[in-house]
Amino acid sequence: MQASPLTWPHFLQNSSRRSIADGIADFWQQDFAAVMQRVNTGELTSANVFGTREFLQNNYLYRFLAAKLGIYGNSGEEAIYPPYFVDADGNKLNASQHRYTLHFENNQLPPANAFWSITMYDGQTQLLVRNSLQRYVLNSTMLDTFKFGEDGSLTFHIQKDSPGSDRESNWLPAPDGSFYLMMRIYLPKPEVLSGTWKQPPLHRIQ
Predict the structure, then answer these.
(1) Which residues contact residue 149 at a Cβ distance below 8 angstroms, ignoring those fewer than 6 apart?
(2) What is the DSSP letter of 109?
């Protein structure tokens, strides 16, 4: 994936342009899969890749990753963005073939001093997913509308078709194909920043 020469600043020499383009190509070919593995296992979080120039200390790999996954993200103290690109077994997400659940044990919802949300994105376009409910996100402002288990747990249904009228309150519609989810925790509590609280895995149920 090389940028067009027309996009380069006019003052860059051809040799500099080639070096930059080669570096970008090397990242896509060699580094992207490896760094995404670290993201998917939780080793690398948004708190590592968003921040000031001083915070990042010229780590251009992290700056590239931040621009790819969510440009203009906040610093870790302001927000944390746990992603779901794979399921609990490390497989890519595809709602044309599978259904999924996201289960929070009692008192284990995302710890936020402001609010939290979980947003659905189409895996191809990276855009929101059109659906019959016109629902694109599940968040903490909707808690009164969710159905909780008798033990206080909360299970979300992530799939393209309705899970049934009795479960639609907890349904986040997915596209008929690949997708990913982005959790957002605004003003995260200390247990999020320290890593004590862990995001629950997304389980495939079919």
Answers:
(1) 155
(2) S
Picking from 143, 144, 158, 153, the residue whose alpha carbon sits closest to that of residue 102 is 158
- In angstroms, rounded to a whole number, what is the distance separating the alpha carbons of residues 135 and 157? 13
The C-alpha atoms of residue 174 and residue 131 are separated, in whole angstroms, by 8
95, HSE (Cβ side, Cα atoms, 13 Å): 27
**What would the two tokens of residue 87 be?**
């399921």
Both tokens assigned to 28: 């896509």
Query: Which position has the token pair 């979980």?
Result: 118
What is the helix (H) or strand (E) element at residue 19, kind and residue range? Answer: helix 14-26
Q: Quick check: 10 pLDDT over 90?
A: no
**For 91-140, what is each residue's pLDDT tens digit?**
999 999 999 999 999 999 999 999 999 999 999 999 999 999 999 999 99
Q: Are the CB atoms for 101 and 203 separated by under 8 Å?
A: yes
Count of CB atoms situated within 10 Å of the CB of 90: 11
Place of tokens 């479960």: 167
Residue 149 C-beta-side C-alpha neighbours within 13 Å: 11
Q: CA dihedral in degrees (100, 193, 196, 83; nearest 10)?
A: 10
pTM: 0.81
- Domains defined for the chain, CATH in brackets: 5-70 (no CATH), 79-204 (2.60.120.1600)
